[in-house]
């Protein structure tokens, strides 16, 4: 049998790798040996973590492990969270001579499926970034000023800070399908960013901080540059409705609350995880 793609073995333990990859939002799979019969390389409870290009820890080596890695990477390529149970006869399917039998539970974590890009590292931007930290989102934070980002930003998971003096270049470098919030320190920069984001045309959502009068002025200028009414209607302005409380924290809470319904969440049925009948078969 042809083995899986070459493994990049890392010295990091499976639990350390799992913790780091979850914090970073990197797609990965956790493989856990859940049953064992006869002679097997490892015992139930042995685990390994698999990414598209690396493996952390081991289930004992051999063709059986190659097949586990290959199965995990096939599941990862599907890009959805799921669990599956893989059965291996160590003398049949795996071509090994142990003669035992194992079941391996594969749990796939697709990583961060939502990317939020924030332009502006002022008071409101900082509070939005802080509030987004517990959410499973990748955050791309931009500011045209060289000293705008706080020291704590380097310690926040799934956060990337970018010095972005050129609005058009910053927008061009974004991945497709981002949720964008524009709240810089400069109205002209805000307008240039909204212009570039609308021209690009593939954002999942676009929000702009400011008053209704600011948006009316922007709308006139953006219409003059060729943007249609349909495109302009996709811009949410003002963002962060917080009643009478105009503190940065209150505005940030409202901005995040407005984003939550816009972020696509996979449908979850009444039954999730492994089929109960499959579990009964394995453990009976």
Strand-helix topology:
Layout: E1 9-10, H1 14-24, E2 28-37, E3 47-50, E4 55-56, H2 62-78, E5 82-89, E6 101-109, E7 114-119, H3 123-132, E8 137-143, E9 159-163, H4 167-172, E10 179-182, H5 187-200, E11 205-208, H6 212-224, H7 229-232, E12 235-236, H8 248-259, H9 276-283
Parallel strand pairs: 1-4, 7-8, 7-10, 8-9, 10-11, 11-12
Antiparallel strand pairs: 2-3, 2-6, 3-4, 5-6
Helix pairs in contact: 3-8
Primary descriptors:
single chain; 284 residues; alpha/beta; Rossmann fold; 2 domains; 6-stranded mixed β-sheet; 6-stranded parallel β-sheet; 9 helices; 33% helix; 22% strand; elongated; disordered N terminus; XdhC_Rossmann_dom; Xanthine dehydrogenase accessory protein XdhC; NAD(P)-bd_dom_sf; MoCofactor_Util/Proc
What does this structure look like?
By secondary structure, this protein is α/β, with parallel strands linked by helices. 33% of the residues lie in helices and 22% in strands. The protein is built from nine helices and twelve strands. Strands 1-4-3-2-6-5 form a six-stranded mixed beta sheet. Strand 7 (114-119), helix 3 and strand 8 form a beta-alpha-beta unit. The protein starts with 8 loop residues before the first strand and ends with a helix. Mean pLDDT is 87; it is low at 1-7 and 266-271. Residues 22-82 form the XdhC- CoxI domain. It holds the Pfam family XdhC_C.
How many domains is the backbone divided into? 2
Total number of β-strand segments? 12
Q: Give the termini separation.
A: 31 Å
Task: Choose one word for the global shape.
Answer: elongated
Specify the number of helices.
9
Q: How big a fraction of the residues is strand?
A: 15-25%
Which residues sit in consecutive blocks of at least 5 with pLDDT less than 50?
Answer: 1-7, 266-271
Mean pLDDT: 87
| Major sheet | 6 strands, mixed
Rg over alpha carbons: 24 Å
Overall CATH class of the largest domain: Alpha Beta
Assigned CATH superfamily of the largest domain: NAD(P)-binding Rossmann-like Domain
Structural class: alpha/beta
SSE order in H/E notation?
EHEEEHEEEHEEHEHEHHEHH
Helix content: 25-40%
CATH architecture of the largest domain: 3-Layer(aba) Sandwich
The quaternary structure here is single chain
Kindly identify the CATH topology of the largest domain: Rossmann fold
User: What is the strand arrangement across the widest sheet?
Assistant: 1-4-3-2-6-5
